[in-house]
From TrEMBL:
PROSITE patterns: P5CR (PS00521). This is Pyrroline-5-carboxylate reductase. The gene is proC. The keyword NADP applies. It catalyses: L-proline + NADP(+) = (S)-1-pyrroline-5-carboxylate + NADPH + 2 H(+); L-proline + NAD(+) = (S)-1-pyrroline-5-carboxylate + NADH + 2 H(+). GO terms for molecular function: pyrroline-5-carboxylate reductase activity. Catalyzes the reduction of 1-pyrroline-5-carboxylate (PCA) to L-proline. NADPH binds at N51. Pathway: Amino-acid biosynthesis; L-proline biosynthesis; L-proline from L-glutamate 5-semialdehyde: step 1/1. It comes from Metallosphaera hakonensis JCM 8857 = DSM 7519. One of its GO terms (cellular component) is cytoplasm. It comes from the Archaea.
Amino acid sequence: MEVLSVLGTGTIGSNVVRAGLALGYRVIATGRSEKTLLKAKEIGAVALRDNASAVSQADLIVISVKPQHFTELIKSIPRTFWKGKTVVSVMAGVRLDTLSEAIRDANLFRAMPNVNAVVNMSATALSGSSAGKDVVEALFRQLGVVYWITEDLMDVWTALVGSGPAFISEIVDGLILGAVASGMPRDIAHSAVLDMLRGTVENLKAHRGHPIEVRDYVTTPAGTTIRGLKAMEERGVKAALIETIEGSSKRASELGKIVDEKIRRELLDAER
Ligand SMILES: NC(=O)c1ccc[n+]([C@@H]2O[C@H](COP(=O)([O-])OP(=O)(O)OC[C@H]3O[C@@H](n4cnc5c(N)ncnc54)[C@H](OP(=O)(O)O)[C@@H]3O)[C@@H](O)[C@H]2O)c1
């Protein structure tokens, strides 16, 4: 049986563990605290504190610790243990170049899932070009859909798809409040907005044209929709959304640089 080791069984890690179990892997999941190890066991993995042992036993390895814990993790694993393994990092901001400084002779990939992995509907970006693409893709497909992108698009992916669920939740909240302001009970508004969103997604997917075509189909002259659209225009909603993604993407890039440079410095110090 193939072995998957998940190093760091937190929010993302535990979903990767579930994905591996569903694919029939024997899964080893690591953590530092009793709480994490217990959770790993409950999900059905072999829980270990020893990351080196987890790496040595595995064919496929997913690194899902926070970036600030990466150097400490790397230091606990002999370099030769990585040889020939397929390794995926889900750590935000840590570049493939930097990973390859720490992990030599392995097939390296980056993955950027989003929080919708908890309902198996993540849209996950994958980067990397080494052998092992198929197994990496199959693993993340268990969590939703997968896109192969070039690494230079990871920051905007992080903004659009990583932070996207927060932006959409904010918009959903605004729509609910608007309905409540117009006299609808909150629970009905909440459920109705989610159903309307789901329907709109399916409609947009089926239509495949520009979103504006669907918008215009609903917009009758002097009707209710154009009144709402006018308010959105006056309040600059579209400009705000463009700035939301642009700003968030810039921040992802800034944070990525900080995280990446810090890890590079720590790795150099560890070598001395
Ligand atoms: N959350 C998201 O939506 C999301 C999306 C995309 C990417 N990411 C990336 O995914 C990674 C994990 O994020 P998360 O939200 O899942 O974080 P999290 O819930 O804090 O999980 C991190 C886990 O790593 C464990 N850990 C830390 N140091 C360790 C070590 N030396 N050995 C073994 N386990 C160790 C922690 O266990 P203990 O508490 O027991 O130490 C914890 O369970 C991050 O790098 C983040 O950038 C997250």
